[in-house]
Amino acid sequence: MVAAVLLVFGAIKLPLELELTAEHRAAFFHGARLNLSLRQQIGQAGFLAALGGFRALVADGLWIQAHIDWTRTEWGKMLFLFNNVTALEPRNVMFWDMSAWHMAYNASAAAINDPTEPYLAVRMRRQHEYFMIGRDLLVRGVQNNPDKYKLYESLATVDRDKLEDHCDAAVEFKKAGSFPDSPDYNRRFAAYELAHCPGHEMEAYKELVRLYNMGVNERLPTVYKELKDLQEELNIPEAQRIKIPESELPKHKIPP
Amino acid sequence: MTAISIKNLSKVFPIPFRRERITAVRHLSLDVEPGQVYGLLGPNGSGKSTTMKIVLGLVSPSAGQTEIFGRDSREVESREEVGFLPENPYFYKFLTGEETLHFYGKICGLKGAKLKERTSELLNLVGLEHARDRRLGGYSKGMLQRVGLAQALIQQPRLLVLDEPTAGVDPAGSREIRDLILDFKKRGITVLLCSHLLSQVQEICDRIGILHQGKLVREGRLDELISIESQTEIILENATPDVLAQVHALLSKSGARVISERKPQTTLENFFLEVTNPPKN
Amino acid sequence: MHESTLPARETPSLPPTPRHVFFSPSRIWAIATNTQLELYRLKVFYFLLIFALLIIGSSAFMIDFTFQEQFQLIKDVSLGAMSIFTWLLAVLATAMLLPKDIEDRTLYTILAKPVPRFEYLIGKLLGVLLMLLVSTLLMSVIFVIALYGREQMAIGDTMRAASAMMPGQLQSQLNDIKESTFTWSLIPGIILIYIKAALFASLTLFISTFASSWIFTIMVSVACYFIGHLQGVARDYWLGNGFGSPAASPLARIFLALVALIFPDLQLFNLVDDIVAGNSIKMELFAKTAALGGLYTCIYLLVAYFVFASKEL
Asked: Is the ipTM of this complex over 0.85?
């Protein structure tokens, strides 16, 4: 009798569970697709705990370990841990963001300043490798979190500051700026980067004019500067140019 | 209407993982009339507890039927009229005497002022007024049995079923419990009693039934069953040797024979109680 | 025949036979409150002390981290602890209920009253569920206080560094702090932690109706905990969702089918991790998940009743 009830109920609840699981996945819950290779990496107890619903705690434990490794500048171990942490918690933006920061900024700086490597070319190559590792983390982060602006912004920043890829940066800033909760500056940064992407100057100019026309909040020194530069570069007719007062231009040199 | 009616009751327990079965009760039939104190006796394993549990609906019969005041024991409503005191009960140690009775009263449907009143009444009746606020964990065995009696009575049942009510209780407590049972009888409450303490059963029961290996082997009024028909007991006070000689002379002329002559004894129990708890006056 | 030594009193006539009430919420409530009292006096609340210490302790050694990391750690540790403790409380408290009543023979005194067996079971389970509710609320309060304390510290630190910030940056940082601490979106996650514990209380009650000892009950419950978390994987493997072709051998298929049908998918109730990471749950999805949990709780209670109703006591 008991077995009958359980099996009948089982047959009823099975489609409900399948539907709920699908809905949960669509809403990005239970992101970790736990598989055997992860198990090998974390070890049996951790695997069980991860399955027991304590993914977050296991991830946090690994994260703390990565923090300790950072104080010892063990970049290789850190990367290994970062990959596991983000595999366990792919919907945690902070993990992706900080992992990428450690690689693209801290590890790369350590590489270029490595006193044990005499050849500059080798140091530069390693630095570039770390840039790319950081970038790759952000790309994967964005794939797992396409609904959040933060990682697009961080990706754009790495492209702009480290890889000097203004075209990709422009696209990524624009994507970041398209989210309703994104800070305003992402829209402006998209326009600035577009201005430095060869072949897109006119597009950039139109965007900057649009920003300018939005009002005094958007009329920041860099906007003025970029407008001024583009107006000259594109030979915009005098009558159509926006008047740029000298006092509004930035006082310090803006890095290209 | 009988208080308890047992008709052709049988109970067989299967043994897990084996072919054999245990027959605890075989074709038992007996009736308990209202207002009686009925003693159900028998050695260990004779089926007393099983019979009691079937009457109370805790175990289901394999065959036959049991009824309480005309209602089938398997129905929950038959237990509106029954109070049960199991063997060696513990109750909830963390509750006080008062809280225990409140709990049982609530599950019998009593509430509010009526419940409080009934609780006080029963605590008084069983002599636990002084311990009403003490947790049951601090009660002696005798006190536990008395609180057990009180909870059995909480909903004013017409029938009480008591399993070894004086087992492990000291003589004074045991005396009090037996006095209570006699008091219940005066109130018209029917009592079904199981006990190994045969001398105590002899004191308070009207009828007894003896079970052996699941069968009812003897049953009937206590005084009829145990009186030695052919003998008569006369106890004399202040009889001088002269009078005794005359009695002996009269008897020798008749067909009667003197079997024994001695000073009657008080019971060890009465002697103990007098020594440990002399009467107040 | 011995005469009673009690003072003679009038023999009152016995009251008329009371009418039996088939279903009585007050009977159930009496058993539930009694069960609750029993559980509190079993010092089950010492568990909560450990929990509180865990939270406070965990936030003490994390000064090196950014405030976002600190908040995340507090939340993950606290909610993880809440999850495990409520589950543990549910299993341990329930596993002892029936065996204790049977051993102490109190079960006989209760069932010898006009109390139907289903009311007894419902009352016992309700008592456990109420205790779990109080425990969850208490733990939540401690958790919120710990978060609030840390939040105030973080705000204080940020305000002190305000002069060195760009316009808008202060506000942005304060917003970040507010978003990292307690948000109302955590509440559905906590409710699902409670529902998972309730499900386990009901399941443990069912197991205890046929188990031979309470240790056996606990072991089986713990096994169900792990199997339940793997149920989703077993189900997908059986049906071939995302695993390429479904499992080949018929024996494996039957085994997986049984696991998928009998055990609950516990992963569905683990949503706090994702909520902490910033994913809030829609009301509709939460309601459906909660309803499924409630359904499981009722079904396990039902099968517990089937076993208990025919149990020879």
From this structure: no
